[in-house]
Amino acid sequence: MRRLVALDLPGGRQFVDELQRAWDAGDAVLPLDQRFNESTKLDLVRQLRASVVIEATGTSTIEAGSPVEDGDALVMATSGTTGIAKGVVLTHDALRASAHATSDALRVSDDDHWLACLPLSHVGGLSVVVRSLVTRTPLTVHDGFDAAAVTSAAHSGCTLVSLVPTTLPRIDTSLFRTILLGGSRPPALRPANVIATYGLTETGSGIVYDGRPIPGVEISIGDDDEILVRGPMLMREYRDGSTTIDTDGWLHTGDAGTFDNGILSVTGRLDDLIKTGGEKVWPDAVEKALTGLVDPSCICVVGVEDPEWGERIVIVTSMELDLAEVKAMVRAALPPYCAPKDIVRVDELPTTAIGKIRRKECARIATRVLARPT
Questions:
Q1: By C-alpha distance, which of 369, 209, 360, 170 is closest to 272?
Q2: Residue 355: which residues within 8 A CB-CB, separation 6 or more?
Q3: Cβ neighbours of 288 (radius 10 Å)
Q4: What's the rounded mean pLDDT across residues 274-289?
Q5: Contact indicator for 238, 221 with CB cutoff of 8 Å
Q6: Integer Cα distance of 163 and 159 in angstroms
Q7: What is the CA radius of gyration of the chain?
Q8: How far does the chain reach from its first CA to its final CA, in angstroms?
Q9: Chain segment 191-223, per-residue pLDDT in tens
């Protein structure tokens, strides 16, 4: 019986060794987020029906676990600390396809050395480990991001790394040959060696580099401008047996965008679209219009239910902003109906473990604040 083995381990040599040991035994692996408390980890193990949990102190067996299919390599959790987790099942064939396509796109050579410093419970972090194992490229694994440690690794020979936008300003980017940047909207201006990536857990890694699909990846635009993806690196299914891949092999991403002259532009999540006064407004477009006035990591544009407009555009931010100035800046770049009607100030924006702003949580915060009597 092929088991699902949960790895409750920090990033480092032991994690890589246990990953390889599970694969050698024909098992699949579920990496557990080390930021979660013990109760949350146990809930995730149960939800995704792992059979074994490996910790630094030993191994335990879960009686309620369920087997995986032959060829399954990873189950990656896609939910946070609440709700029912959707485990993305990735096969060894998919991982190999992803690793080789990525390496071809980056022209990885014998002189390269990967650094993994993002959480290994997220595909952006674990894919670095996977592609290194598949292509036998040298690898260094850190237990999370630390600017000093990343700098030291670069001086010690690491040439390739994956980062998220919040970490980019904390290092000297010139120390690396290439930096892959994903997880959230990249900065408008970035060094030439920094590649903005697009991908999902369901694609096993980034599949679009600076707007161009990597080898083997097909992009199409479906109904409602939804981005569709097809290629050998896609997930097999979710752990519960459901899928977002149609009968023609297209993965429905839930993202909207355009694909013109071979270049993909991502507009935003379909369910993030704000409909105000009969007009459609993409939060990303409003946020981009405010570049130069605000730090992208400190702002989130959301739609809040409104009896007159259907939805009203609201900015949730940890910065001090003047509404009149914000409106003027947005109107200078976008149609007038894109201008926000309110600003909600918070101490800190809710984010995921890799620093991506939780837009739905920001919308809930804005709804609560604006509903209070004035």
A1: 360
A2: 164, 165, 166, 167, 183, 184, 297
A3: 16
A4: 91
A5: no
A6: 13
A7: 21
A8: 62
A9: 999 999 999 999 999 999 999 999 999 999 999
pTM of the model: 0.84
Residue in this structure with the two tokens 């297209």, named with its chain if needed: 250
The answer to whether residue 313 scores a pLDDT higher than 90 is yes
- Distance in angstroms (rounded) separating the CA atoms of residues 53 and 30: 9
Q: Would you say the C-alpha torsion 238, 240, 241, 246 has a positive or negative sign?
A: negative
Q: Which domains does the chain have, with CATH numbers?
A: 1-270 (3.40.50.12780), 273-371 (3.30.300.30)
Is-contact 238 128, C-beta < 8 A? no
- Residue 331, token pair as written in the block: 């109107």
Reported as a pLDDT band with limits 50, 70 and 90, residue 316 is very high
Of 113, 70, 111, give the one whose Cα is nearest residue 89. Answer: 70
Q: Are 181 and 190 in contact (CB under 8 A)?
A: yes
pLDDT at 81 (0 to 100): 36
Written as one string, the DSSP assignment of 127-155 is: HHHHHHHHHT--EEE-SS--HHHHHHHHH
For residue 74, report the phi and psi dihedrals to the nearest 5 degrees: -135, 150
Among candidate residues 117, 97, 28, the one with its CA nearest the CA of residue 69? 28
123-135 and 92-106 helices, crossing angle to 10°: 80
What is the per-residue pLDDT for 82? 39
List pLDDT tens digits, range 104-120: 999 999 999 999 999 99
For the segment 318-335, what is each residue's pLDDT rounded down to a tens digit?
A: 999 999 999 999 999 999
Residues present in the chain in total: 374
Half-sphere exposure of 117 (CA within 13 A, CB side): 24
DSSP state at residue 114: E
- Checking if the pLDDT of 353 tops 80, the result is no
Which H helix or E strand runs over 279?
Answer: strand 279-281
The C-alpha atoms of residue 319 and residue 298 are separated, in whole angstroms, by 6
What is d(CA 5, CA 119) in angstroms, rounded to the nearest whole number?
Answer: 18
List Cβ neighbours of 63 (8 Å cut-off, separation of 6 or more): none
